């Protein structure tokens, strides 16, 4: 699970941390946590997400997903690295190409997620997560809707959004620290309503809409110099500096 071999060993810290995440996702209900863990393991067996992120085994069409997703890792003194995944929806060229094949979209989105999960280094944990305290093994997600003009209740986008929420809430619990929705147009209200139907209240508290993406860097004191200029920082733009999944030109 997330690079961690689950062991029948009460002293194995990485295993304990994985179990704690599933418990936290289910408010401490052991039965529900066990059911979700089982579903997540079954999903990983079916999808084999590690192959989805392996560039030698799987790549994705640049025309469909080029510029749409990035991963950055920012070093922080005394706090561990800040892992950020970026979804740039303004980079979508053709709606039907990107969202029409839901399974392919989920595989691409999973590949980006697995890149980020690897950066969390859960398998190298030496300290057990405090169930009621801060969890250092979490990431930040940014969804950017700048120049987006296609979100008028498009059925392909709604279906892909719904499926992504269902998969990720089951297979990747408690890996999200905060999610920022930046440059959000008013019409995006439907999406937040949809999300609330599929995630618990604790998760929705982590969601932060920001109308001006240039204000994002303010949310991360000490990292302003590293964040991309488009988001209020002084660092390089995502394209050309951030990591992404393997892409192929057709």
From TrEMBL:
It holds the Pfam family CRAL_TRIO. It catalyses: a 1,2-diacyl-sn-glycero-3-phospho-(1D-myo-inositol)(in) = a 1,2-diacyl-sn-glycero-3-phospho-(1D-myo-inositol)(out). Residues 103-239 form the CRAL-TRIO domain. It is found in: Cytoplasm; Endoplasmic reticulum membrane; Microsome membrane. The keyword Cell cycle does not apply. It is a peripheral membrane protein. Its cofactor is heme b. Keywords: Cytoplasm, Endoplasmic reticulum, Heme, Iron, Lipid transport, Membrane, Metal-binding, Microsome, Transport. Its main location: cytoplasm. Non-classical phosphatidylinositol (PtdIns) transfer protein (PITP), which exhibits PtdIns-binding/transfer activity in the absence of detectable PtdCho-binding/transfer activity. Regulates PtdIns(4,5)P2 homeostasis at the plasma membrane. Heme-binding protein that may play a role in organic oxidant-induced stress responses. Belongs to the SFH5 family. This is Phosphatidylinositol transfer protein SFH5. It comes from Aspergillus granulosus.
